[in-house]
Amino acid sequence: MNHSILKTAGQWVIPLIVWIAFAVSCDDSDSQNKVAYDPNKPIELTTFHPDSGRIREMVLLDGSNFGTDPSAIKVFFNNSEAKVIGSTGTRILALTPRMPGDTCVLSVQIGDQKKSYVNTFRYKIEASVTTIAGSGREAHVFDQGLDKCELKPVYIAADNEYNVFVTDNQDVLLRINTITNTLSVVATKEQGFNHRCAPAANPWTNVLMQGAEGAGNRDRFVFLDPRDGWAMKSRFIKGWDLNGHTYPSGGGTGNLNYESHFQCLLCEVDGMYYTRYVHGHIVRINPETWEAKVIGMTPVGLTYGMAFHPIRKNELWLGYSEFTTPTGADAANGIYTLDVTDESRIENNILASLKRWTPVSSIGGHRDGPIDQSLFLGIRMINFDMDGNLYVGDCRNHCIRMVNTTTMMVSTIIGIPGVAGFKDGAREDAMFNTLHGIVTDPDGVIYVADYHNNRVRRIAIE
Asked: For the residues 361-370, what does the mean pLDDT come to?
């Protein structure tokens, strides 16, 4: 028999069994007097099944005193709320939510009561990779359609209108419209565009924002407004409140130029722009007056990856690359967080809210598990989905990692750690080569600037 038919049939067997089991329970309960939830009696939890599954998996949760009104029942997989389909009073049917974490504690909440099952549910991640742009060649040809274009993608951004923006290493900014499958040039080197600065879309306006790199660019930022056809414009800091610090300037050492600030991000808590200079300055910029204030310091080093948490919106996450100076070697390959609304400082003006989550390892490596034991190698861009999962472009490990910022567990989502190559397909097969950029669109689809494969890749994760 055809194996694909067997596989397809197998995917329906368990959901069908679960649905039949629930339907039988409903028939049984219909023949009895249904009992409403009694707030004066405790909820009792016994078992649930299956004990593992993917997104939208049907799960039966057994117990008592559930009541029969599904709208009054909440079921959680860790902190992610599941859709409740129905309840017999002693059995709930719920659908597994998207990306609740690898290992899930299942909880039932009714009224003021909330209880958790003793056993845990194992969430199975499914992922598939396709190439959306690039033929694999590096000739920088952009007018031959997505499948025939030739590019060297570095960093990447996505707005709320499903546009994907890619920086090509010849200082060109490209726009991919994923609805029409078209590619167009937005900005060039002649206009002053720099491909090494990762763009980010303003979540309120869809305006693309960037920092700037190199000596003499300390005060410069780049903006591209969709209302102007993404015409590139520069804005400059007009005044500084150094707040007890020195200017973020200097000749730099090796790969580090202290005037470089690669990102410009909007904080939705206070409406201010934030950037980080290579020497460690965290700077707040008033978008109305363009006055800048240094709010504190972080360790020296390159952070191509920087993103605000979508739920804890004052929480800024930093991903350090492998390149440092001797004074910042401890920061290499590290993931940090800080609270931009807290300006309190400790020794050497380091922000008191700054926290390193990963262990100190200047040489890096690859290890999943609790974040305080995890290892990365050459972090490039980082980006969140709307559920607060952090995706990390683990450049020199040639794979994509995910940090569940509720459980603080790290997992490899896709790619073969330490093995470079090119292959589209399922999670266990897909390969990348020195990926740089990573971004999620409003639907949670991931786009990757796969640098040495000269391609832009699309990853659907469930």
From this structure: 92
Query: How far apart (Å, rounded) are the C-alpha atoms in residues 263 and 304?
Result: 8
CATH code, 255: 2.120.10.30
| Cα–Cα distance list, 259 to 92, 138, 178, 338, 370 (Å) | 58, 30, 35, 21, 35
Q: Which residues constitute the domain of residue 61? A: 3-123
Most distant CA pair in the chain, distance: 82
Q: What is the pTM of this model?
A: 0.84
Query: Positive or negative, the Cα torsion across 322, 323, 326, 331?
Result: negative
Sheet of strand 335-339: strand arrangement: 305-308, 315-319, 335-339, 355-356
Among residues 414, 445, 410, 446, the alpha carbon closest in space to that of 432 is found at 414
> What span, in angstroms and rounded, lies between the C-alpha atoms of 202 and 276?
17
- pLDDT of 330-342, one tens digit each? 899 999 999 999 9
The domain total for the chain is: 2
Q: Are residues 140 and 231 located together in one domain of the fold? A: yes
In this predicted structure, what is the pLDDT of residue 451? 98
Q: Which residues pair with 105 in a beta bridge?
A: 120
Identify the residue whose tokens are 């009992």.
35
